[in-house]
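Exercise 3.2. Students should predict the tertiary structure of the chain below and write it as structure tokens, then compare their answer with the key that follows.

Predict this chain's 3D structure.
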Amino acid sequence: MPVQLAELLADVPDGPRVDAAALRAAGADGEILVVLDDDPTGTQSVADLPVLLEWTEPDLQWAFEQGAPACYVMTNSRSLAPEAAAAVNREVAQRALAVGARLGLRPRFVSRSDSTLRGHFPLETQVLAQVVGADTAHPPDGVLLVPAFPDAGRITVSGVHYAGDRSGYLPVGQTEYAADNTFGYRSSQLREWVLERYAVAAPQQDPPEVELLDLPTLRTDPEATAAAVLGLRPGRVLVADSADENDLRLLAAAVLAAAAAGVRPLIRCGPPLPRALIGQPRREPLSGNELRQLTTSDSGRAGGGLIVVGSHVGRTTEQLAALLRRHGGLPVVELPATPASRPNSAQPASSPGAADRAALDDGRSVDALANQLAAILTDSDAVLATSRVVVTGDDPQQSLAISVRCRGGWSRPCTPCWNASPRGSSSPRAVSPRPTWRGTASR
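Answer key:
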């Protein structure tokens, strides 16, 4: 039964307000936050930061030289098999440390993942800890786990992670997210979830010590909050409650103070914590005028906007349906995710490779779809959506293999690509059709 937010927070006092500017001033000189983003949605909570889709050393050097307090690297590792996800994280971290050494910058790594607990944990934080430890002879001081995304209704109270909205909140283990075919779980209590993930993903390892920084402590006892972060060491995980933006800022203040004292944990978090760590205020979504500046070509002609719908969870399907009800004439281009609609299909939907072959064999190739969308976008908005059928395998590994193959079939770069200009520039600029994108996150 959903519980109301007021009920969850009934006995929790408010905390002192923290100004973003104070956090910005507390950041250490010569450091840059490198956010390894395991899914393309991670930048929705930040603005005006460099974003990379490829992580060669020249790409990372470009990002580091922008003078921003953080940069994002879109690894998309949530859609990769564990071995590939580990390799990507290792590669990004090693190259970032090498570039930082040349430029006199110290990268600090954040592993940004899903606010509903799906992703490669503890694999990714372990890989980052190994790379940092090998480079500095001082491994990170444990892991700070903060999956909360209050703007999206994902909060942590008394160590229990919830998902909800104004109609009420459910422990996340009772939601459809916990039934994910690849990263499914049972526990809503984050301490138990950490131990569950270790038992599944790292059964050969001793489980970590897991402690909780609860909301009353975070909001009313700065000394105890600081002590909790300062007490982190390798082999420990600190789970932090958070129910609103100010909670994240209170936590960021403790993290920055701990860093000044030499304690630097790896951070595994949902989208908004990096915003607090760099002292960036919440930015409203782009206005119509700002969007026009980003989409107006050099000829002065404004094109349409592309709405991409990939997630297959029920909430996303509801959102897509609501969009099409409000804008009935909006063109929709669908990416088929199952061969079920193909006559004489000999392969079951759960067979690895069936989905992407069906999508590519039915006459709507990647190039044809790209050309179709390009024609629509010259003067209209458009929706690019995967079909709403979920294709699964017989086990999590097979389901992930299907996802990887489908993603490989559809993720080739299109020509031309467009790079969103930094704010203040009058138009986008064309970039070469290579699988990289140096851009600026604009929320």
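Discussion points: The first strand starts at residue 31 and ends at 37. Residues 339-364, 408-437 have pLDDT under 50 and may be disordered.
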